[in-house]
Amino acid sequence: MAQELLRLATAGSVDDGKSTLIGRLLFDSKTLFTDQLAAVERASRDRGEEYPNLALLTDGLRAEREQGITIDVAHRYFATPRRKFIIADTPGHIQYTRNMVTGASTADLALVLVDARKGVLEQSRRHAFLAGLLGIPHLVLCVNKMDLVGWSQERFAEIREDFRRFAMKLDVPDLAFVPVSALHGDNVVHRSASMPWYEGAPLLHHLEEVHVASDRNLIDARFPVQYVIRDHGRDFRGYAGTVSGGVFKPGDEVLVLPSGLRSAVRAIWGPGGKEVTEAFAPQAVTVELADELDVARGDLICRPGNRPHSGQDLDAMVCWFAHRSALAPGATYTLRHTTRAITAEVRSLEYRLDVNTLHRDESASGLALNEIGRVQLRTRQPVLFDPYRRNRATGSFILVDDATNDTVAAGMITGPATRVVWHAATVTRDERPTRGLTVWFTGLSASGKSTVAAELERLLVAAGRPAYLLDGDNLRHGLNADLGFGAADRAENVRRVTAVAQLFADAGIVAIVSLISPYRADRARARAAHSDAGLSFVEVFVDTPLAVCEARDPKGMYARARAGEIRGFTGIDDPYEAPVAPELVLRPGDGDPATMASAILTFLDR
Amino acid sequence: MTSTYELSHLDALEAESVHVFREVAATFEHPVLLFSGGKDSVVMLHLARKAFWPAPPPFPVSHVDTGHNFDEVLEFRDRTVRQLGLRLVVGRVQDDIDAGRVAEESGPRASRNRLQTVTLLRVIRESAFDAVFGGARRDEEKARAKERVFSFRDEFGQWDPRNQRPEVWNLYNGRHRKGEHIRVFPLSNWTELDIWSYIAAEEIALPPLYYAHRRQVVQRDGMLLAHTRHLALLDGEHPYEATVRFRTVGDATCTGCVESTAATPAEVVAETAATRVTERGGTRADDRVSEAGMEDRKKEGYF
């Protein structure tokens, strides 16, 4: 019985019913123990409350119970036959940003609650923004207290659209919406009888099914050396650590940084000396190299053709944690990054971000508790890093105050601050006659993507709007002729097409991309790149069942894949990860390609 | 079929714990592992050995002995330490009582549980330990649910729940001044069921107390206490024989057992998966002192 682990962080203000929802999840999934429930009932009675206050389950500290507030993150555990869950229950209103960051840094999924009566509040937006900033790939918006709005389908749709419009500005690749009543248990563990109009799954079912395996970076091999293990009796010298990206295999040629020495992997040992044939994140292993090299804690092992950035100047987003001091340019801290500790100076504060309005205050001179800003750091020695978006492990750091030993900030590296300045154009986007964007079609081979995409291009051009179709198959004749169909090549394919689409969109053209793009993580990176550049990105999922695609098989590809002539064919022996929250979904019953294309046009014009 | 690159939850938990052990060994000068012979500390020791294979764990183990321990557990402790060639530092509560540093509770319900904090802090101070591995799990108790993996303790060993260091990603901050120390909890994210599943999967040996056996017990305050030489009987209490096992093992005067016929790790896993009472709920008198019993003890320096 090999269950997968899912880490989730909850957010939302106390009044939105967060603790009740967690209590309900535990209770209905039969994880809540009878003595815990009895303790809650007893404590509720003592406080003169009529019903068992499930918030008391998660508020464990004396001061929390006395004041009825949540002070710090609590961790809760529950399991179903399919998965084990770790909930980081983060406080809603006190010291929100710091606590949310603390609880959510390792989360796979963020659960944000809104009260159906109040709708999307500032707080919901802030939490969604933080989830995006922290690179949490999946977000579920639970619209709670549906019982208090008469189980209204219209109200739910209104909130969903409101939030979706806001989320388009964020880097949240996977967004789901569930209408619930935590108090009554509707759509939490069990399907609600009061909301027959809701076609989706109850919350727990979604948590069990959400696909997280592809969220990890399996491309960029990274192994920060944590500890050197020597056993003189056996003449053993191994480098212990946790794989933080990519896959390592015995025989791999590797590069040790910062020394630049090369060697090969002789063997990889799992904990306790179990020899393994490959190691991937987040496995803790011990690596033996073929050559006797001087390798120490703080070094990083990677592949020669795929190195991380190395530099002393970092550009990063930081969240300030300290209440006793503020971040100010000129101050120095100890920067803890992977397995290294390096002195770093804050060179400049580029801007302070208002997490409620997303406004950038460039006149800010410092960051106080719970504030987020973009900074430039200079480190005493080079740091080996990747942008946080590409790798949460090699892109994150903390700052430690040497005077107090406090952890004063969490940081996410945006990239090197090498000042390779973007060549500034004299024409701004607003000055161009048309505004561009990217419409990204994804779906199985023969799902009908390209047909609809071509139809959309025709409609746009006919209406006098510049548009250009970037078709995956066509691009493989030129730009991507050197790429194959393995996961790494597919990722590179998506990266290049993304870059080209961005250029078109920036030029004022509607870039229409038609690409199977089977992996969610690749599409998430495309979306994030557009978001960084301030360009709109509309994901259209052409949801044609495999059987239909296979029956169509215009190029005979499925037949060849079934016959074993083609390996790694999407839908046959390679997975297709369907989008969970695309802007648009097209199904075979939605009409002919022209009808579908005009539906997209209507969406774009909204 | 290529690899799916998915880790089972036990493998993920093991990797996380191994990472913590190595991090401490790499960044502290004098770590120590609290080892009582109880199941969580046995799992900790097992993980520590796996983390540093093929070398032995680069730190000693320590046990705070209340003097009221189960004989079977002490035997297991000493045998394990001998077989693995570990250095064991024992702190005896009796020594602190004899020296007048603590006063023993009196009366039939007297317990030395609370006194062990003083002994623990003395051992840490005397041996200048700077990192102390404890087997506490967040699922055990509501105050422990708020605990960090690296828990800063001041020079008095105190835990300040309102002023904990934020802990993000797996970047742990173990910085401290001389005299201060860090409690480290590699099993933070494990549940009781995880522990048992791991014991079964890895075939880890435990003291026999953890499996069903016949013994003399006494009913007290809704708990089943073992009738040992450490337990003074109250009026009207009559020991009787029952088939029991222990879910948690500590001081014999405040650790209860449960009626059970589970005699193998697999049977205990099945029983644990089905139980509707928490590990500490039915078996630990020390948690029943007040709503915040554990929190108060942790603030004093308990682990």
Automatic annotation (TrEMBL), chain A:
ATP binds at G443, L444, S445, A446, S447, G448, K449, S450. The active site is at S517 (phosphoserine intermediate). Residues 3-216 form the Tr-type G domain. It catalyses: adenosine 5'-phosphosulfate + ATP = 3'-phosphoadenylyl sulfate + ADP + H(+); sulfate + ATP + H(+) = adenosine 5'-phosphosulfate + diphosphate. Catalyzes the synthesis of activated sulfate. It comes from the Bacteria. Keywords: ATP-binding, GTP-binding, Kinase, Multifunctional enzyme, Nucleotide-binding, Nucleotidyltransferase, Phosphoprotein, Transferase. It comes from Amycolatopsis acidiphila. GO terms for molecular function: adenylylsulfate kinase activity; ATP binding; GTP binding; GTPase activity; sulfate adenylyltransferase (ATP) activity. Its EC number is 2.7.1.25. Gene3D superfamilies: P-loop containing nucleotide triphosphate hydrolases, Translation factors. One of its GO terms (biological process) is hydrogen sulfide biosynthetic process. The keyword Metal-binding does not apply. The keyword Phosphoprotein applies. Pathway: Sulfur metabolism; hydrogen sulfide biosynthesis; sulfite from sulfate: step 2/3. This is Adenylyl-sulfate kinase.
TrEMBL record, chain B:
Keywords: ATP-binding, Nucleotide-binding, Nucleotidyltransferase, Transferase. Residues 278-303 are annotated as: Disordered. Its EC number is 2.7.7.4. InterPro entries: PAPS_reduct_dom, Rossmann-like_a/b/a_fold, SO4_adenylTrfase_ssu, Sulfate_adenylyltrnsfr_sub2. One of its GO terms (biological process) is sulfate assimilation. It holds the Pfam family PAPS_reduct. Residues 31-256 form the Phosphoadenosine phosphosulphate reductase domain. GO terms for molecular function: ATP binding; sulfate adenylyltransferase (ATP) activity. It comes from the Bacteria. Heterodimer composed of CysD, the smaller subunit, and CysNC. Belongs to the PAPS reductase family. CysD subfamily. This is Sulfate adenylyltransferase subunit 2. The gene is cysD.
